Amino acid sequence: MSALDYIKWVGQDKTETFQDGPLKIEHTYRISAVDRSGPDTVVHTIKVTNTCCNKTKLKDVMVLVDLDVSGTSWDAHLCDIYGRRVSREDEYLKFGEIEPDGIRTKTYRWTAASVTEGERLDVKFNLIPSYQVVYDRTNAFSHSCPVSFHSAMI
Fold this sequence. Notes:
- By secondary structure, the chain is mainly beta.
- The protein has no helices and nine strands.
């Protein structure tokens, strides 16, 4: 299998932004982010922001990073600093609890290997967020209605 030396980046550095309710995710791709200090790996960044305007915090914030490649000649996967495939659990970037207007940033590494040199690699990065919205009593959805109790005679 060939190394990342064979990957020819198309395009430029870019950041894509996604919004899901109170959660904003910024995914930064850097063509210059190939780390050659060990096995070739690419480092990308995910920044998560709690955009809730009503003092609501987010709990257990995680983002699953799932890589899909086009064709059958390539294998792309998340890896550690040594280029070794990470466990399925480590494909979840854990951000923990994020206060309103709070920001957390994490990086991850990925690598790819080709069975056939010279074939183009298209990687689709699927980011799947998971989180809980924690409301306190002052932010609860509340409604009141009049209730009357009548004692029953037995």
